[in-house]
Amino acid sequence: MSVTNVVIVGLGLIGGSVALDLKRRGFAAHIVGVDSNEGHCAQALELGLVDEILPLERALNNAELVILAIPVNAIAGILPGILDKIPEKCSITDMGSTKQSICLAAASHPKRGQYVASHPMAGTENSGPGAALYDLFNGKVAVICDEAASAPLHLQRVESMYKVLGMRLLRMGSAEHDLHAAYVSHLSHITSFVLANTVLAKEQNANTIFDLAGGGFESTVRLAKSSPEMWAPIFEQNRENIIHALESYIEHFQKFHRTLVQQASDETRGLMADANRIRRVLTKMDDKTSKKGPAR
Q1: Which of 61, 115, 150, 164 is the most buried (most CB within 10 A)?
Q2: Does pTM top 0.85 for this prediction?
Q3: Could you tell me which CATH class the domain 3-173 is placed in?
Q4: Where are the domains of the chain?
Q5: Stretch 72-98: mean pLDDT, rounded?
């Protein structure tokens, strides 16, 4: 199912990467970009991410699919107004990392069926149009939430888009999504931010960090380069789930700390052995990705 006119609101890493692949893979004939940052607009045109830049209201006039790739608090704020203005057969989806508050913002809207709540589980620590990548989504998972609230035409169109991007589809409720995302996505970003602050507070000499930091540190702290403008609203919107996730995380941290204080080396090794079980999970993830093969 191809689409003639796609409107992408937000031309950063996610919006720009979507634009690259939807055009290259033949899903979209014409892509209109919308962004409040004039520099992003100019860069997106220069890089060929979009065919033209328009103000939001004008962009919606002939839209068949609208993709919201902006911070989650902004999505919840503008979604009802966009639903007011889009044509009857136009579909709209968002790519936010939280879902429940966004779904609630559209729940009572008479055009709720045109909206498909989704979250492509992909990204990097970089931001802006220049961070856009081909194949960013290939082999990753896209979550469709509260699908019963979306009309079949619009659900099919958004699912087709994700399949064109090479993604595997999962379906779950928006509340369930936010709970799982707190543990498998949001907590890892918080860990990276906290680790970066811990090291920077202790190691005032940047050269020491540069000289001593190995691959393990670099891979663990990589997410600390992520945009606060994007992630602060995510933490705010998913606050309750993240608090519970952090409480559990801190409990495990304290347990590890206690074994070291008590010089209980067998217990320390046992905790690490328990953690090694994640290897089986990651192996299964790699197997699923390799069996799927490259997207067409």
Answers
A1: 115
A2: yes
A3: alpha beta
A4: 3-173, 177-292
A5: 97
In the chain the first and final C-alpha atoms are separated, in Å, by 14
- Phi then psi for residue 137, to 5 deg, are -95, -10
Of all helices (H) and strands (E), which one includes residue 66? Answer: strand 65-68
Answer whether 178's CB lies under 8 Å from 98's CB: yes
pLDDT, tens digit, for every residue of 217-232?
Answer: 788 888 999 999 999 9
CA distance 33 to 10: 7
Q: Is the pLDDT of residue 294 over 60?
A: no
Amino acid at 228: P
Homologous superfamily (CATH) for 177-292: 6-phosphogluconate dehydrogenase C-terminal like domain (1.10.3660.10)
CB burial string 198-209: b at 16+ within 10 A, e below: eeeeeeeeeeeb
CB-side neighbour CA atoms (13 Å) of 247:
6
Lowest-pLDDT choice from 96-100, 134-138, 148-152, 211-215: 211-215
Query: What strands lie across the sheet with 65-68, from one edge to the other?
Result: 52-53, 28-34, 3-9, 65-68, 91-94, 115-121, 141-145, 168-172
Alpha-carbon separation of residue 125 from 11, 72, 140, 150, 283 (angstroms): 15, 17, 16, 31, 23
